Amino acid sequence: MASPVWHPYAHLLTQQDAPKVVGGKGPRFVLEDGEALLDATCSWWCMIHGYAHPRLVAAIKEQADTLCHVMLGGLTHDPADRLARELVRVTPPGLEHVFFSDSGSVGMEVAMKMAVQYHHLCDKPGKHRMLSLMKAYHGDTSGCMAVCDPEEGMHSLFSGYLPRHHFAPAPTAPYDAAPDAVEQDLAALRKVLEQHHHEIAALLMEPLLQAAGGLNMTSPLYLKGARELCDEFDVLLVFDEVATGFGRTGKLFAADHAEVTPDIMVLSKGLTGGYLGHAATLATGRVHDAFIGSTPQHAFMHGPTFMGNPLACRVALESLAVFEEENYLEKIARLNRVLYEELLEDPALRGHPRVRDVRVLGATAVIEANDAADLKGVAAFARARGVWLRPFGRWLYTMPAYITSREEMRSITQTMKAWFA
Ligand SMILES: *Cc1c(COP(=O)(O)O)cnc(C)c1O
């Protein structure tokens, strides 16, 4: 009998039987027949330490012996308290309060509710819409779908059901763009803010790297400019660092490239090293303090059952400790050099007629094909070479685990290039 498991984003008529994973070690997972695949995507970008990392596994086991779960409503525990302090320590200065939840989408829902309630409490109840960017992806729940790219995104069929927000054009200036190129992107953002700021609570963005919307990369100057515009128009700046957080762009957070502190920042994917689902929504003192007051409306009405789960917090603490003790930023820089040399500096690839663009940032690289059809069959092609690639649309990308060796990184890039050769 076919499995009753309903797979994500799957087209039921054409989907193939999913290979069964029985384990994994380092950057590879292992299938039931013993086949080991080098994971070029580290499981939707979250398994940053790879599979079966001994310290992370030990942390979960140790915590399981002590306390697997307890509600955070009216109670607290060491792992939640310590993780909150650590997140405040490592994130940009000014982010001082941490609201836990169980997934990236919910972390973004929390951010949006927080922003709307903040303005309500500041006597600006008219500021109740979001400003998002084209090509954005912020999650699959209803609130998040409403701030994903409304045209190219995968949620357009739900448009009748979703609340309406504002959208500014996606930035087009690349990472190393000159200031005047970035000015054009910022002018487009300013235009929407000038028109609609009176009803905009927050500007949402995936800083530097719009991930699921096509690995669209932009300049740190765009983040700086967005910060200034938000201050000018009394709009909160929300950084969705669910994908970019924990080293993906080459610094611990994308915000660090621009030395910008957003008012609210959301972390998930890499937070627990991928070992358990969890998220954190961080807020500045200014946002938090607006909630200090005596009316019933001052309470922030949100509380996921599993927020601050001790197992998740404990493994997140271990993940961060390993990241810092083993100098992961240096590992990421090494991977980045391989991606540069192998992909960006390969004239045959960049000049290939089916390749529209090649982009690299931190431990992220994408070959953008001209057409989604150009990538049909690439997953099976890679699997035959021992590599797990899962492209979407016309984007063939890698976001490897940071413990991937240079040789392994090369075997991923060579597989990607071989497809076009
Ligand atoms: C994956 C992702 C989300 C959603 O996180 P889930 O844990 O899948 O709900 C939100 N924002 C960004 C930028 C993401 O990459």
From TrEMBL:
Domain of life: Bacteria
Main location: cytoplasm
Participates in the substrate recognition with KAPA and in a stacking interaction with the adenine ring of SAM (site feature) positions: 9
Keyword S-adenosyl-L-methionine tagged: yes
Top-level EC class: transferase
Sequence positions that bind pyridoxal 5'-phosphate: 104-105, 240, 304-305
EC number: 2.6.1.62
Positions carrying N6-(pyridoxal phosphate)lysine: 269
Record field: catalytic activity: (8S)-8-amino-7-oxononanoate + S-adenosyl-L-methionine = S-adenosyl-4-methylsulfanyl-2-oxobutanoate + (7R,8S)-7,8-diammoniononanoate
Pathway: Cofactor biosynthesis; biotin biosynthesis; 7,8-diaminononanoate from 8-amino-7-oxononanoate (SAM route): step 1/1
Binding-site residues, substrate: 44, 137, 269, 303, 390
Cellular localisation: Cytoplasm
Keywords: Aminotransferase, Biotin biosynthesis, Cytoplasm, Pyridoxal phosphate, S-adenosyl-L-methionine, Transferase
Cofactor(s) named in the record: pyridoxal 5'-phosphate
Signal peptide: none
SUPFAM superfamilies tied to this protein: PLP-dependent transferases
GO molecular function: adenosylmethionine-8-amino-7-oxononanoate transaminase activity
Family under the similarity heading: Belongs to the class-III pyridoxal-phosphate-dependent aminotransferase family. BioA subfamily.
Function per UniProt: Catalyzes the transfer of the alpha-amino group from S-adenosyl-L-methionine (SAM) to 7-keto-8-aminopelargonic acid (KAPA) to form 7,8-diaminopelargonic acid (DAPA). It is the only aminotransferase known to utilize SAM as an amino donor.
PANTHER family the record matches: ADENOSYLMETHIONINE-8-AMINO-7-OXONONANOATE AMINOTRANSFERASE
HAMAP family, per the entry: BioA (MF_00834)
Subunit-level organization: Homodimer.
UniProt-recorded name of the protein: Adenosylmethionine-8-amino-7-oxononanoate aminotransferase
The organism of origin for this protein: Billgrantia bachuensis
Protein encoded by which gene: bioA
